[in-house]
Structure formats: C-alpha cells, structure tokens
Amino acid sequence: MSLIRLLTYFVVGYLFWKFLKWLVAPAKKRGDSSGGNPGGKAMLLIKCNACGMFITESRALMVRGRAYCSTACAGTAANRA
Ligand SMILES: [Zn+2]
Questions:
Q1: Phi and psi dihedrals of 68, rounded to 5?
Q2: From the CA of 48, how far away is ligand 1's center (Å)?
C-alpha cells in the first residue's frame, strides 16, 4: 500500500507543480516578449564609414548600404568615391 501512497503523492506533487508553473507563466511571458529589452529596439552599435565613430543603428544614416553618423560624413564619403 505504501507504494500506491507514494505514487499518489508524486502525482499530486506533479499536478501542484504544473499549477504553479501555469500561475507564473503568463506574468513571465509579458516581461520577456521583447527578449529582455524593455525599450523594444535593440541598441546595436555600428561604425561610421567616413569618420569611424560608433553610432546606434537607429541613428545611423544609410547611404548605398553604408552607415554614416551624419549627412556631412555621408557627403564627404560620396565626394571621395
Ligand atoms: Zn561620421
């Protein structure tokens, strides 16, 4: 009989664990939806092709597939080419 009691405890424990996970899961999903970044956009740094300064991807100026920190840099690079 002790084996059946042990099995019952195991099943009850398992169900209780599942219930706890179900309780915790929705709150966890809400926080981790953006990959642990509350700001949303990833702060990826890229190098300016003219002066070599590092700028965030969202602030970079893309000219013909190259990144520049400003219109001035994009202009000098275009003049050089
Ligand atoms: Zn630059």
A1: -135, 155
A2: 5
